[in-house]
Amino acid sequence: MTKKAADGVRSTIRDVAARAGVSAATVSRVLGGVYPVSAETRRRVLRAVGELDYVADARAKAVAGAGTPTLAFVLEDITGPSFAHMAHGVEREAHRLGHLCLVCSTEGDVRRELDFVETMRAQRAAAVILVGGAADTAEYRERTRRIADSLASAGSRLVLCGRPPLGPGAPVTVVEYDNEGGAFALVAHVLAQGHRRVLFLGGKPDHTTAVGRESGYTEAHRARGIEVDPALVLHGDFTRDSGHRLLRRALDQGLNFTAVVAATDMVAIGALAALHEAGLDVPGDVSLTGYDDIPFARDLRPALTTVHVPYEELGRLAVRTVLGRSPGGPGEHLLLGTHVVVRDSVAGVGKGSSASR
Prior knowledge:
Layout: H1 3-6, H2 13-20, H3 24-32, H4 39-52, H5 58-61, H6 63-66, E1 70-75, H7 81-96, E2 100-105, H8 110-122, E3 127-131, H9 138-153, E4 158-161, E5 172-177, H10 179-192, E6 198-202, H11 208-223, E7 233-235, H12 240-252, E8 259-262, H13 265-277, E9 287-289, E10 306-308, H14 311-322, E11 332-336, E12 339-341
Parallel strand pairs: 1-2, 1-3, 3-4, 4-5, 5-11, 6-7, 6-8, 8-9
Antiparallel strand pairs: 10-12
Helix pairs in contact: 2-3, 2-4, 3-4, 3-8, 7-14, 10-11, 12-13
């Protein structure tokens, strides 16, 4: 018998993890038998369980019935304005319906995401909401399908909010917005002002949100019979610094453009700073648009033309939709609309206006 058992002190899952040299989430996976682990890892965990005489805490297993029911909200970056508004919607609706909302910021770490989801499964959270675009790969679909099945087996539900759906039969709820349609309408508005050389400052080329917005940009040109110049499509990420860097690169390369379509409002803010630094007026010399309609887009000078995404309503809808559903039920796919908000940052093309150097 171990010293802990002899002293009458119950071993914890963290004690087992420390003895086996793995994370607490890995111990939970081994004992739950849902997530695949290597034979060696399983052997080490089970040996540690035996040595410590570990017994799973029944309180953790009963948390959903014994205390306040929980919802989990998982996102990559909690500092992003759009995601913050979605989180606000989730939290407010969860509170209204008597649920506690737990938030996890993964910073792009897939292992951290899996560990948090596994913890929520062990605690039988009512639902886990995964937010934000991702690379739509076979590995993503397999991993996310395992998460969905695992949560369903524990009486929980996976919600994909703005993430790639998994296809028919998966026990998930998908809540998203018309990403590509919003970009199409925005670029169509820019082209209607006479612009033909439109610089696109996009995100990562394998990111589904970025792909949708770039596709809307391309399709709007195609609908008007305009061929897109590949040199005018630049890729970065969804940050202010990326917008500033890409716009500076376009100016340094001497690209000829009269309008800039940024993949997010934050990218547009960076681009606006770079244009001002170069002595260019918006919209006198160059028109500029964003995407998301974050609150301070209207406070920029000039106020930013952009696409409004109902992020807070997305969060509320995700909570309202998932609560009360059968955990193992078929998938449900909900789509919210977007619309262009016309402000002061886009003007018609002036004779000879250009941002080329």
